[in-house]
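Notes to self after the Tuesday call (sharing in case useful).
The group wants a holo model before anyone commits to mutagenesis around the pocket. I volunteered. Ligand is pyridoxal-5'-phosphate. Logging inputs and output together so the record is complete.
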Amino acid sequence: MSHRFDEPESNQPPRGLPSSEDGNPTSDEAAVTGARRPPTAAEQREAACLRAASNFTVTGLPAVPPIVPAAVWECESTEHADALLSHAAPGYVYQRDGHPNADWLAEHIRLLHGAENAAVTSSGMAALSAWLLAHAKTGDRLFVSSQLYGRSLLLLDQEARRWGLEPIIVDVTDPAARQAAWARRPALAVVETIANPCLRVADVPRLAEEAHAVGARLLVDNTFATPLVCQPLGWGADEVLESLSKLMNGHGDLMLGALAGRGDHWDRIEQTISTWGLASGPWEAWLAQRGLGTLGLRVARACRTASELAIASTRHPAIARVDFPGLAQHPDHELACRLFSTDDQGNTLFGHVVTVHLKGGRAAADRLIAESSHFPFCPSLGELRTTLSHPQSTSHRGLTEPARESLGIGGGTVRISVGIEPTAWVLDGWLAGLDRLPTN
Ligand SMILES: Cc1ncc(COP(=O)(O)O)c(C=O)c1O
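Result:
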């Protein structure tokens, strides 16, 4: 027989006045009448259990950081609460304002970037929002690279206009376009170290010099590089952004972002993260910090395989062009050699992403993706596994065809985010897929 939850049972008490089974008033009922009575032994026990559950100590130093999920912390006194909230005393009050896992993760990122400060946010987009909200004021002009990640462009172009900001979309590889944009005296500038999908490299030292000459602040989104490949703060950027959802965490199981930078204005950034609700959670922060522990190993393997894959791809007859900053023919190869770090063998790390343009166009891309048994089609990057993406149908689908063409994206453009599988296995699977494609 089906049971309807909205049918009242005949022996139910009237709504809003719960009674215990033996007919005596419950504590809820007492609260309703305001009558005072001593708590029963069972009620004492219930309260004692709750108190005991939050009365813990940890003896010794755990070998890994604990997860501290507390939404709120106990204050010792009103003075202590006041001191905590005004940052006069160290400690925490409310998770959105700060928590240990975010601080431990931020410290890790601060060290990786050689920054004075770092802060963690709920996603890479939250980090960009926090930066913009902390620094921009109505009427400001924004210098925005035309090659930014699609959502970043949406935020800094369409959304920013709604707030009275004036974006200037710039091809940052064109000196004349840059000069014209700087002449309009933007207050803020945003570029990516390695831009998706043709992997153009930003000349960070030059951009920083140009930005500072007109009094602008430069933010560099370093997501495709990670601090192990490039440290934009060392090249003059004011702040750097990482989407930790990608290679930094590297396991494809969380969303987080981070900002790192100089000391000035940092309290504005931290206040913005809390006030606009852009803060991270402890579970994700803990996971990301665990992921960072293997960043060096993952970056080394993925970058090496990416270099091998790029070189092998240049020799394959199904491919019209390969974009990878490690190739001598890439327009930014020399810049990458200058700005990017080396591994322990002295080889430059050129990143873990390679983009190819297939001679067979969209049909060839569709076939490569459909028949790929090695590599899933996942429109993201920085996973443990090698993944494929198709910019025309995913990251850049919102652009017009001419706009995509101007960025070098066609139907046959496929982006490979190289993972940490053995190099030979990745190459074998990749070349086997290409062998099935048309060569003209
Ligand atoms: C270069 C770049 N920056 C920022 C973001 C946004 O990061 P998140 O997805 O963590 O918000 C992405 C996401 O794909 C990205 O590719």
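Two things stood out.
The chain has 16 helices and 13 strands.
The mean pLDDT is 93.
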